[in-house]
Amino acid sequence: MSRVRRLAAICIGICAAGMAHALDYKTVPGAGGVPLNVVEAGDKTKPGILLIHGFAQSQNSFQAQLTSPELTAAYHLVAFDLRGHGNSGKPWRGEDYKDSKLWADDVLAVMDATGLKKPTVVGWSYGGFVVANFIEHHGTARIGGVMLVGSAAGLLEANFAPPAPDVAKMMAENRARQVSGDITQNMQGAKGSVGFLTAKPGDAAWQDLAAAGNLLLLPYVRTAMAGRSLDNRAVLPKINVPTVVMRGSADGVITQAQAEDLTKAIKGAKLSVIDGAGHSPFYETPARFNTELAAFAKANAK
């Protein structure tokens, strides 16, 4: 093969690889017509995985999954920005955040628009509460399995680990900055929140995206969401699909005891603890996380 033909073959291969893992963005009307920013990756003919991010974050949290050659070769991955978050719409009225059915219907709209049939649904942190909302209103007929990551999802009486007094003080000060009308205070609050997401500081790109996620959750949305009920204990008996409860061993949000209690409370659920990871194991230990996710999704697709 000539040098020119070899170079051409290399270029074609690179282009093909890039196309195979390209991110496909679209806007989907959610409940009440709220525009939801949705991204798809992978093979749309393969089993689905739906990734739902946490509070004050976005679909960008899942870059290590959406760009994984292994996952995108075998699965149709979908993520979206929750209402009020990221590049999704930010309704002005407080009632547009209160009703759990709004959040449930947003998920259903994304599933319908992307053709997800019975996906494995991953709910990280606040995303776990949204998964519970979906099951509350739409059951589990459309779900192949559930993975709750760093989330008790409102399914237990105690849903969050009580922070140490000094940490609680820092968090309260940070929350005050995040709802301030002063954008410089918002920026400080956004940067201050990033450290709670991982056991060790993430790289610069991660910190930038995490801080951006915080800034894009505007003060009036935070205030509206603060009045939303997060008690999903009545949903617990309705979870009748394969479930994994995943926790980083250094997670400061959900305790080991809470993760164990939740695993026992959900029939047939399995517990996965990722050593050394904090609240974001999909970012901190992506190889381990992606391997477990792929195995779980494969089992659910049978």
What are the key terms here?
disordered N terminus, globular, eight-stranded mixed beta sheet, 45% helix, Rossmann fold, 8 strands, alpha/beta
Helix-strand blueprint:
Layout lengths: L2 H18 L3 E6 L5 E8 L5 E5 L10 H4 L2 H6 L1 E5 L14 H4 L1 H15 L5 E5 L1 H13 L6 E5 L15 H14 L4 H12 L9 H13 L2 H8 L16 E6 L7 H10 L4 E5 L6 H4 L1 H15 L2
Parallel strand pairs: 3-4, 3-5, 5-6, 6-7, 7-8
Antiparallel strand pairs: 1-2, 2-4
Helix pairs in contact: 5-6, 7-8, 8-9
Structural overview:
The protein is an alpha/beta fold and 302 residues long. Residues 1-20 have low confidence and may be disordered. The longest helix is centred in the first third of the chain and has 18 residues, at 3-20. The chain is 45% helix and 15% strand. The protein has one domain (3-300): Rossmann fold (3-Layer(aba) Sandwich). The protein has helices spanning 3-20, 63-66, 69-74, 95-98, 100-114, 126-138, 165-178, 183-194, 204-216, 219-226, 256-265, 281-284, 286-300; strands spanning 24-29, 35-42, 48-52, 76-80, 120-124, 145-149, 243-248, 270-274. The chain contains 13 helices and eight strands. Strands 1-2-4-3-5-6-7-8 form an eight-stranded mixed sheet, with helices on both faces. The termini are far apart. The radius of gyration is 19 Å and the shape is globular.
What is shown here, in short?
The protein is of the alpha/beta class and 302 residues long.
Order of helices and strands: HEEEHHEHHEHEHHHHEHEHH
CATH topology: Rossmann fold
Strand content: 5-15%
Largest sheet: 8 strands, mixed
Distance between the termini: 44 Å
Q: What is the averaged pLDDT score?
A: 92
* 3D shape: globular
CATH level-four homologous superfamily name: Alpha/Beta hydrolase fold, catalytic domain
**Number of helical runs?**
13
